[in-house]
Amino acid sequence: MSSSTNTPTHHTSTIGSIGTPSRRNTELALLVFAVLIPVFAYANVGLAIDEKVPAGLLSYGLGLGLIAGVAHLGVRKFAPYADPLLLPLATLLNGLGLVMIWRLDQSKLLQSLPNFAQAAPRQLMYTALGIGLFVAVLIFLKDHRVLQRYTYISMFGALILLLLPLVPGLGANIYGAKIWISIPGLGTLQPGEFAKIILAVFFAGYLMVKRDALALASRRFMGLYLPRGRDLGPILVVWFVSILILVFETDLGTSLLFFGMFVIMLYVATERTSWIVFGLLMSAVGAVGVASFEPHIQTRVQAWLNPLHEYKLSQAGTHDGILHSEQAMQALWAFGSGGTLGTGWGQGHSELIRFAANSDFILASFGEELGLAGIMAILVIYGLIVERGIRTALAARDPFGKLLAVGLSGGFALQVFVVAGGVMGLIPLTGMTMPFVAYGGSSVIANWALMGILIRISDTARRPAPAPAPSPDAEMTQVVRP
Amino acid sequence: MNKPLRRIAIFCGLLVLALLIRDNYIQYVQADSLRTDTLNRRVAIERYATPRGDIIVDGNPITGATKSAKSGINDFEYKRTYKDGAMWAPVTGYASQAFGATQLESIEDGILTGNDDRLFFRNTLDMITGKKKQGGNVVTTLNAAAQKAAYQGLLKQGKGAVAAIDPETGAILALASTPSYDPSTFAGNSSSVDSKAWTKLQKKNNPDDPTLNRALRETYPPGSTFKVVTAAAALQNGLYTSADQKTNSPLPYTLPNTKTELKNEGSIPCKDASMRIALRYSCNTVFGKIGADLGKDKMLSEAEKFGFNAEQFTPVRSNASVFPKSMDKPQTALSSIGQFETAATPLQMAMVASAVANDGTLMKPYMVDKLQAPSLDVISQTEPQKMSEPLSKDNAQILQSMMETVVKEGTGTKAQIPGVTVGGKTGTAQHGVANSENPYAWFISYAKLADGSSPVAVAVVVEDESANRDDISGGGLAAPIARSVMKAVIDSKK
Fold this sequence. Notes:
The structure holds two protein chains of two kinds. Chain A is mainly alpha-helical. Chain A has helices at 24-50, 57-78, 86-105, 108-111, 120-140, 151-163, 191-216, 232-248, 252-270, 273-291, 295-305, 307-316, 324-338, 362-395, 399-423, 441-462, 473-479; strands spanning 171-174, 177-183, 187-189, 218-221, 224-227. Chain A starts with 23 loop residues before the first helix and ends with a helix. In chain A, 53% of the residues are buried.
């Protein structure tokens, strides 16, 4: 089974090693399924819409297979002990997303909209770029701990990325949220997706250094450990920046994701429940405060509380251009019309959601055509990715790796929850995209990079021999006060 | 750090669990109400995704379906078409992609689209065998020849309506209304063609209100035709026991408790006239006095036995005809000659004639004979139902002989058909303040064949353009239409 040729060294390390088999062949077998399922789905859509197997089936199948193969070879070569589930799960989601995007490309209604362009070919290209970045991460990031060095650079990088959309002339206001920047000749970019990863690196690096200070230097008050004022500094800064994003970019999703990720990592780093209490309090204060004067957020909340009413208003033309209020109801109808088993791929009418059917609302498109069964499967796949990510954090031997892995997977989980919850009407809509399945270059590329980092950490964690340069300093420096 | 990590893992699991629960709620618990929400455009898309089943008259479909013009974003596959749409509109209603459906098209939508629960088993079988879903058919009771006679007769006169019933079953044979509209003109959803046609038909743009179904939904003062009901009440309550018994009625007749004199049209022999004579000449004085003598309660109870003050569901709803429930004596007298607040739909007056023709038994009017599955199997068959018994058999035959006199030698001679016994009653109802507007010319009648069977009863109302105040205009304008409808039914029986 194992393709490894490592000599059995049998180091008995105090940190228990997790299973020696590399599981690369397991990954390959799973990948075959992850490619075959979307290929069958693609054929299914073609049969349903045109009553013939689509002409591009072979090239599409080969394309997806090739991309998956490259990714697999990359993992086999550069991260042989990585978690075998992460890559197939992400590939499956990406492949299903491509099929749905291609299916929506066939819709006459969407084709009649202004600015229509086939989205599936571009999404396939973005996927290829994403896999390219994924392999590049595996090649160039030999050890994730290297990233510690870039803690503060990461902070600046993330702040710049997050604030770029506010730069006049660069930022683009698309449907009410200023979360895009337009680069002439290249199109638009959603910096928030990349900032998510870079921020996780910064938080991990920062918290690894400060965790003891944050955890220990506190007073006990009413059963809670109250942090010292100066230790509250970073959390206040993060809180403030997330409020800035919420106010100036009217992007509830990114600010929630960003702050939530920080609280999760803070909690893991300090093991102090009080930080969670503070985090929740501050996010509540921030959200309510901003919602009280920001009309865009208010509309979202209205559309969440009473989607039918908002739909009728938008039909009557009393709303000034905030299309999401109509889409919330359209999404619910799509879900309801799908029912338990769905209409079947290609046989629904998700195009009624209009332009966002393949991006923000792709989950509703899935809900209609694959039904409750399909959505539950997709949610479980996301759940598995997240839990494999946290498993990686548990297995990681260094605190930085643990923090980074939990930050990335926790952020991923929050994003899935915020988007899916928004589309399903569980929470107000935020306008982020489902990782891997939704149309969008930034999202696909960034999430493949995220997978690359997780796979790198899991490779290091599961590698039977201790890492090549086990630096005890990493643990030591934490106790040494700077 | 592993303890908080495990908690985070549980927290993430809870997030996914919350999503799963929410998903089950909207896609399982709420699914049906969301799926069938009328604002959900999928409902309309589904309705027009397959050719609708047909509405059938005399074995021939009067509707059809055609592929919609595929203009990019039109997501409705099939469009409804109509044959002789204007003639059949009061029966079919319309099914428009843009403006919804009415009447039979709406009431039997489930059968016509094939979505009815009663078709579920067949649909499932079809799905397994790979057949495309099809709509079922609605087989009506209408008689194409009678409908044509009614519609063309009305067209000559302008505005009006006809309702014809088979007295023995209650089956509706004709239901015409003019001016009419062709539902084909707005069956699609193009804003340049269909919307324009639709807008033009709306009452505010077209004072003639062509989309009004005058046979079922318009109530007119029935005028002298209501005297048939009054005569029935007199017979049933034993006020007079035969057609030729002299009535105790003065001329002129002063309305009780007033100084107002009730007049007749022209100088006709109404003093102490028998009911036969009074009906033949249409004496207001005689029937006004009968109504006042019987009193409000007896008149009301008889009128309601004929179907007044209740909506009829054929299954298309007809408006309730009105016989006032509270009135004083002089008002009762006026109501009894079809004036004051008395108002009737053409269907209601056809029911009156049919009850008399059917020896006193009123059958429930209906226009759907059966519903068929796409395979032509019968899903449901309407059985004729007795509605009430406004007259005893003997009294019905007395009334028949009176109505037959009207046609033989009275105001209704224009309804005579050689070799057929016809009974009828004319009417001219004044309306408008101080009779300022054109009166309505009425004629109700039935035909009896030599074997004693009665195949048709009919009511015709013409919104009289020639403004003849004379009671004769009911006989002049409406009776010929009634005659041609009756003749069409009798001819088609041969």
